């Protein structure tokens, strides 16, 4: 296996709920895995096993207690466990794209600006960023009449495609995909699968969750369970 | 745009203020980097506004050190500069957006004069140029250009807040201190202001310290958060991590108590 773009070592994450008597919920108990450029590793555990928690930890959204999350960022491996917020933000700007199951945006901002924003923060001029955003929205079959509207009022499937668009508009080397095709119709699902294939083709390392057995079989170059040791 | 410095723009260490026997704030520390927005959140009486007031010099801190890297690269000791140096810093490098726009505006002069005033204080003399810059900024903050000669008194709350922002940003500050910038505004107006502030921060590469009790506002504007209670910092970190995976019992309580953080 070539050098990984993402390597997770013995990752542990426990939630402590202080308002509920200090209940401790151990979710990740020593997860290890590697994802090489061009691979698509799909986590195949049942619901509640911590798949989304793992993705959020890799994105820096959840803070693990122990272990390492090594990411190839601007040519060197950095560890995101305990990393400074500045480093995490820089990794998010340039290296890791994350398609979550929720769309969170400033109300009233048009969808084209929402999708263009990740390009703007890495210095792509506004006209160019908008152009690329429009092209991707078009490809994802978001009708043009919606582009100037806020996605807050969109349907679930439309919001999901906006989520996909604002990540795939940048060529991130690492992609975290949390059910990227859930709530999509067949044609939209086909397009998202195609986008993921293209990303792999340019060398992106993809880690994701996909419930749908057919899509999973189509996408995964490797299926892994959280409890398994890292592949050699 | 100034080149990104190697060090933080603002460095705060051990900042403290007592009001008699009451703690205003205690041992506050953070670094703010160019282009970064830090949110200071907490409930009333948590000390968040005291932190901002100590930074701006509105109240005198009684402990700590605040260093700021000015445009030319020198580092100034903010708490120990004399009054004229402080005024110069507030005029040339910083902007201050008050919760109540009436505290930051001059209500007896026109909107255009409010925006032009800081330019004139910096030595601009050409009337047409000042008016032109004022018009530019009114447009940027989405105030109708036909309102340039109107008194702020005739503006709505949201317009007043946008005018205050224009008045501050016209001189190209590098650091903006904001106290509850969306407080007291209708929700629909808040969204518009949030969008405006986000755009300005990205485009102008601004750094900002934003004090707010509204966690949703903090999520949308701030890169990093400092959570305060009783004058002390209980937790700090990446904004979405603090809000989605709060570690401290108080932060957990705060986050779980609002409807949509």
The structure class of chain A reads alpha/beta
- Oligomeric category: heterodimer
Order of strands across the main sheet of chain A: 6-7-8-3-9
Radius of gyration of chain A: 18 Å
Strands of chain A, total number:
9
Written account of the structure:
- The complex is a heterodimer of chains A (about 230) and B (about 260).
- Chain A is α/β, with parallel strands linked by helices and about 230 residues long.
- Chain A contains 7 helices and 9 strands, in the order βββαββαβαααβαβαβ.
- A 5-stranded parallel beta sheet of chain A has the order 6-7-8-3-9, with helices on both faces. A 4-stranded antiparallel beta sheet of chain A has the order 2-1-4-5, covered by helices on one side.
- In chain A, α3 (about 110-120) packs across α4 (about 125-140) and α3 runs parallel beside α5 (about 155-170).
- Chain A starts with 5 loop residues before the first strand and ends in an 8-residue tail after the last strand.
- The mean pLDDT of chain A is about 95.
- Chain B has 10 helices and 10 strands.
- In chain B, the strands form 2 sheets. A 6-stranded mixed beta sheet of chain B has the order 6-7-8-3-9-10, with helices on both faces.
- The longest helix of chain B has 18 residues, at about 185-205.
- Chain B starts with 9 loop residues before the first strand and ends in a 5-residue tail after the last helix.
- Residues about 1-5 of chain B have low confidence and may be disordered.
Q: Can I get a quick summary?
A:
Chain A is built from seven helices and nine strands; from the N terminus they run βββαββαβαααβαβαβ. Chain A has 232 residues and is an alpha/beta fold. In chain A, helix 3 packs across helix 4 (126-139) and helix 3 runs parallel beside helix 5 (156-168).
């Amino acid at each position: 296996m070539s050098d990984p773009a993402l390597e997770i070592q013995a990752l542990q994450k426990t939630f402590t709920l202080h308002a509920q008597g200090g209940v401790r919920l151990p979710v990740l108990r020593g997860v290890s895995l590697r994802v090489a450029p061009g691979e698509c590793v799909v986590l195949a555990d049942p619901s509640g096993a911590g798949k989304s928690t793992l993705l959020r930890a890799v994105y820096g959204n959840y803070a693990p207690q122990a272990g390492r999350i090594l990411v190839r960022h601007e040519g060197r491996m950095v560890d995101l466990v305990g990393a400074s917020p500045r480093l995490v933000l820089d990794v998010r700007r340039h290296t890791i794209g994350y398609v979550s199951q929720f769309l969170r945006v400033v109300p009233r901002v048009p969808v084209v600006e929402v999708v263009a924003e990740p390009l703007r923060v890495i210095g792509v001029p506004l006209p160019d960023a908008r152009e690329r955003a429009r092209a991707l929205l078009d490809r994802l079959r978001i009708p043009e009449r919606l582009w100037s509207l806020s996605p807050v009022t969109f349907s679930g499937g439309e919001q999901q495609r906006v989520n996909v668009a604002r990540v795939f508009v940048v060529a991130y080397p690492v992609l975290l995909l949390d059910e990227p095709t859930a709530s999509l119709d067949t044609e939209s699902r086909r397009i998202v699968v195609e986008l993921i294939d293209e990303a792999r083709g340019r060398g992106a390392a993809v880690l994701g969750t996909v419930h749908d057995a057919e899509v999973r079989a189509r996408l995964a170059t490797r299926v892994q369970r959280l409890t398994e040791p890292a592949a050699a | 745009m100034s080149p990104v410095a190697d060090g933080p723009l603002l460095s705060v260490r051990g900042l403290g203020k007592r009001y008699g026997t009451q703690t205003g704030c205690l041992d506050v520390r953070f670094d703010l980097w160019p282009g970064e927005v830090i949110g200071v959140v907490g409930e009333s009486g948590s000390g968040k506004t005291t932190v901002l007031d100590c930074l701006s010099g509105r109240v005198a801190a009684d402990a700590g050190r605040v260093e700021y890297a000015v445009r030319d690269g020198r580092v100034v000791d903010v708490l120990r500069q004399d009054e004229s140096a402080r005024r110069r810093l507030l005029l040339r490098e910083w902007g201050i957006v008050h919760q109540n726009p009436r505290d930051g505006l001059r209500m007896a002069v026109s909107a255009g004069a409010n925006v032009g005033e800081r330019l004139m204080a910096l030595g601009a003399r050409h009337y047409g140029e000042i008016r032109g810059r004022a018009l530019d900024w009114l447009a940027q903050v989405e105030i109708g250009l036909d309102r340039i000669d109107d008194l702020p008194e005739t503006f709505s709350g949201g317009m007043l807040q946008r005018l205050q922002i224009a008045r501050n940003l016209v001189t190209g500050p590098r650091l903006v201190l904001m106290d509850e910038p969306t407080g007291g505004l209708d929700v629909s107006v808040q969204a518009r202001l949030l969008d405006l502030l986000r755009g300005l921060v990205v485009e102008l590469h601004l750094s900002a310290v934003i004090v707010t009790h509204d966690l949703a506002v903090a999520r949308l504007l701030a890169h990093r958060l400092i959570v305060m209670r009783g004058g002390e910092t209980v937790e700090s970190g990446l904004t979405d991590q603090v809000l989605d995976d709060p570690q401290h019992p108080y932060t957990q309580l705060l986050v779980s108590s609002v409807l949509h953080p």
